[in-house]
Write a structure and sequence with these properties.
about 525 residues; alpha/beta; 4 domains; 17 strands; five-stranded antiparallel sheet; single chain; Beta-Lactamase
Length: about 525
């Protein structure tokens, strides 16, 4: 308590008239203590109806009828300020007061008070000027306390948001902005005030503000902290710029752009559909011409052989030599018929793209079955088969018919590639990958090979490296489609004159992969 007495000067006003009321009204206890380290604690006045006494009662000050009562140390008064101009009052107090009590005469105080009021008037004028400036700014300006209470706003805010000053000042900012009693500090909203407090610097953001009629405004908000001497934030200065019109325009532009994009997309889709149809028709014409030509040649050959054989049969004599010719003719007719069948089969597979019937498949067994079916074709082309099939090859999930179609095409293509060299060797190898997640099927021939400029286009539909009349370019395209549908891959490695190697990889089922991995782990242990 002693430290408080020594640090703060307690003042008693002697006289409770109009000037006393004016002083009490203009100089609050907090104002005096903050500015001059003083406070008014008592009023001495014999008239209990005096205006200064009434206001002092409202403020809870000590009121006495005789100033001498304040001489008591219990009252803790350090300074008398005389508001009564009577000179005799000053003399009486100076004769009777304790030594530690100081007195400010009416004349001296009146001089200070006039200077104070002059300064106050100047400050009021400056404040009015500042308010005029703030009201002239079109941006919305608010002053908010750390407790989220709005203490001042400019005219632009009131006009823009449709409020009166009484409806805003003294309210919490969330009550005005969001019509709710719940503080933004109490939830996870990205309140800019929280950002300023956390980072201790200005913050910018875009917020929505709701006016009394419910219209939502988009605001570009900047919050600036105002600091106390001790480093605490005393107030927040909020400056907002209404960007609702801009946001509405942006939304309209976005909507128009989306419409334009949708319209352009529709036009492109229509154009793409037309081009695709034209491409399909062109491909169909090309396919038709190629298929007709490819099928017509072997049919013409078969027809010639039939006519020749009929002519021979009409002759009476049938020699051994003619019997050998018959067998040769029949073999050639068989080969041509198989070629027609292969062309038609590829065409049907390419055009229909049938739904696969999946199941566990033994790849080694399918390869052996396909080799048996092509035994005569291989013999005609003088092709020898070298098998290196892994007996421990795991089964894969796939379509038996389509995988056999792949093997048929690979074998027939290899046989035709070795035809010009008078035959050769086709090596068929199967193995399981090192990572036990796939199997490999490798076809290696000793044919003429493939030039580098053909490798990139090898699997395209209607693209062929064969001579005219030897194929329509669907075989490898069908192979690629089937392997891709099985989630596998096919690659080719070749050099002109040194044959070609086609490597097919098919994935194992997840269950099979886990089983293979477990078996491999047990074998290592």
């Amino acid at each position: 308590m002693a430290s408080e007495i020594s640090s703060v000067v307690n003042i008693a006003l002697i006289g409770g008239g109009e000037k006393c009321r004016e002083i009490l009204k203009m100089t609050t206890v907090d104002f005096l203590q903050d500015q001059v380290n003083s406070r008014i604690v008592a009023v001495a006045e014999s008239d209990c109806t005096a205006p200064g006494v009434i206001l002092a009662q409202e403020k809870g000050l000590n009121i006495v009828s005789d100033y001498r009562q304040l001489y008591d140390p219990v009252c803790q008064v350090h300074l008398f300020i005389l508001l009564d101009p009577d000179p005799s009052l000053l003399h009486q107090i100076l004769k009777t007061k304790p030594d530690n009590l100081r007195v400010l005469s009416h004349q001296a105080f009146d001089l200070f008070w006039k200077a104070f009021k002059s300064r106050e008037k100047l400050l009021q004028q400056r404040s009015k000027e500042m308010q005029t400036i703030l009201d002239g700014i079109q941006d919305l300006i608010l002053v908010i306390t750390p407790e989220q209470e709005i203490v001042d706003v400019n005219e632009a805010f009131l006009k823009q948001m449709g409020y009166t000053k009484k409806e805003v000042v003294g309210k919490k900012c969330h009550e005005v902005y969001h019509q709710t009693n719940q503080s933004c500090f109490e939830n996870n909203n990205a309140c800019p005030l929280k950002t300023v407090i956390r980072n201790r610097k200005a913050a910018q953001t875009i917020r929505t503000r709701t006016e009394p009629k419910g219209k939502i405004h988009y605001m570009e908000v900047s919050i600036y902290p105002l600091w106390e001497k001790d480093g605490r934030i005393s107030h927040f200065l909020e400056i907002s710029h209404d960007i609702t019109d801009r946001k509405v325009q942006e939304e309209e532009n976005r909507r128009r752009l989306e419409q334009m994009v949708d319209e352009r997309t529709r036009q492109l889709q229509e154009t793409h559909a037309k081009l695709l149809h034209q491409d399909k028709m062109a491909s169909l014409g090309k396919l038709s011409a190629s298929v007709v030509h490819e099928i017509n040649n072997p049919i013409a050959g078969i027809l010639n052989f039939v006519l020749l054989m009929k002519r021979i049969l009409k002759e009476d004599a049938f020699s051994i030599q003619e019997k050998d010719s018959f067998e040769r003719y029949l073999t050639m007719m068989e080969a041509e018929t198989r070629r027609i069948s292969r062309i038609v089969s590829n065409l049907l597979t390419f055009s229909r793209q049938p739904k696969m019937k999946l199941g566990l498949q033994d790849i080694n067994r399918l390869i052996e079955k396909t080799l048996i079916l092509n035994d005569n074709l291989l013999m005609i082309h003088n092709v020898k088969i070298r098998q290196a099939l892994d007996p421990a090859l795991p089964q894969v999930i796939g379509s038996a018919d389509q995988l056999q179609q792949v093997f048929m095409n690979m074998i027939s293509n290899a046989a035709e590639a070795m035809e010009s060299k008078g035959g050769g060797v086709l090596t068929v190898k199967t193995s399981c990958g090192d990572t036990a997640d796939s199997i490999s099927i490798i076809f290696t021939d000793t044919g003429v090979g493939i030039t580098p400029d053909h490798l990139d286009k090898l699997f395209e539909p209607f693209y062929t490296t064969k001579k005219k009349g030897k194929g329509v370019g669907l075989g490898l395209s069908v192979v690629y489609g089937i392997i891709n549908a099985h989630n596998g891959s096919i690659t080719v490695d070749s050099l002109p004159g040194n044959g070609a190697t086609f490597t097919i990889q098919l994935p194992l089922s997840p269950e099979r992969q886990r089983a293979e991995t477990a078996d491999a782990a047990r074998n290592r242990n």
